[in-house]
Automatic annotation (TrEMBL):
This is Glycoside hydrolase family 1 protein. Belongs to the glycosyl hydrolase 1 family. It holds the Pfam family Glyco_hydro_1. InterPro entries: GH (IPR017853), GH_1_N_CS (IPR033132), Glyco_hydro_1 (IPR001360). GO terms for molecular function: hydrolase activity, acting on glycosyl bonds. Keywords: Glycosidase, Hydrolase. Its EC number is 3.2.1.-. The keyword Membrane does not apply. It comes from Metabacillus rhizosphaerae. The lineage of its organism: Bacteria, Bacillati, Bacillota, Bacilli, Bacillales.
Length: 468
């Protein structure tokens, strides 16, 4: 019997270009949808502005300056023993407006250097092609509501698949694709509450992903392409059948994205919903065959929390703040930002997804956003983060060892402090590495190792055996 984590398990960490890189107009980069989102605070959403407005603070513009400090940062990842680094390419670094015919060579050169640095340390890049940033120049077409954007995305994919052939073999097509139903601006550059608009954009992304999967396999048979699901998982508030049905309805709203990308077709329950609501998909000849041919090789997802759903829940999928269920789980504690802490739910989620799709899984985001204190001697004692990660990794280990779920890797979010996507704050820190910046982008940008840095190093050294 196999015990513990596989020998080739991809331990690592994860970031996103718009939350880490900064340098938002350097070396020919164009504006993205992330670059016109101001900072918010807990409970107050980030504002989307019409272009860059003087006097407003946009955290993506400088972020944590990973663009200029990637060698220092990756060296720290290597010191922890990372086997993988999940990161994203900023599409607007490669095609500044999104629709150019010729790529920006400076952007391609930058990521060449990033991947070379990873490989120098034996770190496998896991690359997200579109992580909450669509080139702002594509809004003139209507962004992902317009089928033409598929062609621009595929031109971008073809460019990077060819450019980084042999350097990158793990790809994710869209980050948290189901965020289309909760925060469509982040998912697709669409600021609309109209369900027809959202589902049209989702269809175009499904089709783009399916074609990208096929293209990746043609360019390099070693390529493995996955989808990325924002890990929404729910428990029924009670055994009342009405509560149970409400919970199933919620999960259908989220999991249909996985159904399409992993199974290659729209599930019956979603087609019936479209029929009731008068939503018509913009299907053209051959599209449904493309979805079937472009199923993903693996399913990756983020796991931060679980929900409780009941018959009183009136789920609003149309607000920028996303999902509010109206129930609290009395058995779980919560983070400072109100996210439930549910390690056992990670094992549950792994089993649920593997039972449903029977393809390998990867946890590409999991972590605790918290306020960290730098002591007078420069140390940072984040025992709460170590406890959080230990408990989650212990449950993941059970899913592998006891339940037989094939898990390819685990990339903790985020290995260094980065801008929080939900609020744009810096004080909501996740990292093993402290970055000296405040909520207004002020600070030295210096990197400081936290206690969790040394703990995770031990975890990787022992391949998950040293969790105590």
């Amino acid at each position: 019997m196999t015990k513990g984590f596989p020998e080739d398990f991809l331990w690592g960490g994860a970031t996103a270009a718009n939350q880490a890189e900064g340098a938002y107009l350097s070396d020919g980069k164009g504006l993205s949808t992330a670059d016109v989102m101001t900072a918010g605070v807990h409970g107050v959403p980030r504002e989307i502005t019409d272009g860059v407005v003087d006097g407003k603070y946009y955290p993506s513009h400088n972020a944590v300056d990973h663009y200029h400090r990637f060698k220092e940062d990756i060296a720290l990842f290597a010191e922890m023993g990372f086997k993988s680094y999940r990161m994203s390419i900023a599409w607007s670094r490669i095609f500044p407006n999104g629709d150019e015919k010729v790529p920006n060579e400076a952007g391609l050169k930058h990521y060449d250097e990033v991947f070379d640095t990873c490989l120098q340390y034996g770190i496998e890049p896991i690359v997200t092609l579109s992580h909450f940033e669509t080139p702002l120049g594509l809004l003139k077409y209507g962004s992902w509501e317009n089928r033409e954007v598929i062609n621009y995305y595929l031109r971008y994919c073809e460019t990077v698949f060819n450019k980084y052939k042999g350097k990158v073999k793990y790809w994710l097509t869209f980050n948290e694709i189901n965020v289309m139903s909760t925060k469509p601006w982040m998912a697709a550059g669409i600021d609309s509450n109209d369900e027809q608009t959202r589902m049209t954009a989702a269809f175009h992304q499904f089709l783009a992903s399916a074609k990208a999967v096929q293209m990746a396999h043609e360019i390099d048979p070693n390529n493995k392409v996955g989808m990325m699901y924002a890990g929404h998982f729910a428990y029924s508030n009670s055994c009342d059948p009405e509560d149970v049905q409400k919970t199933a309805d919620f999960m259908h709203k989220m999991l249909f994205y996985c159904d399409v990308q992993c199974r290659g077709y729209y599930p019956a329950y979603k087609l019936k919903e479209f029929e009731r609501e008068g939503i018509v998909l913009p299907i053209q000849d051959g599209d449904l065959e493309e979805l079937k041919k472009g199923k993903v090789d693996f399913l990756s997802y983020s796991y931060y929390l679980t929900h409780v759903i009941g018959k009183e829940t009136n789920i609003d999928f149309k607000g920028l703040n996303g999902v509010k269920t109206g129930y609290k789980n009395p058995y779980l504690s919560a983070s400072d930002w109100g996210w439930t802490i549910d390690p056992k739910g990670l094992r549950y989620s792994l089993n649920l997804l593997y039972d449903r799709y029977q393809i390998p899984l990867m946890i590409v985001e999991n972590g605790l956003g918290a306020v960290d204190k730098v002591e007078e001697d420069g140390s940072i004692h984040d025992s709460y983060r170590i406890d959080y990660l230990r408990d989650h990794l212990t449950e993941m280990k059970k899913a592998i060892e006891i339940d037989g779920v094939p898990v390819l890797g685990y990339t903790m979010w985020g290995p260094m402090d980065i801008i929080a996507a939900s609020t744009g704050e810096m004080k909501k820190r996740y990292g093993f590495i402290y970055v000296d910046i405040d909520d207004h982008g002020k600070g030295t940008f210096n990197r400081i190792k936290k206690d969790s840095f040394y703990w995770y190093k031990k975890v990787i050294e022992t391949n998950g055996e040293g969790l105590d």
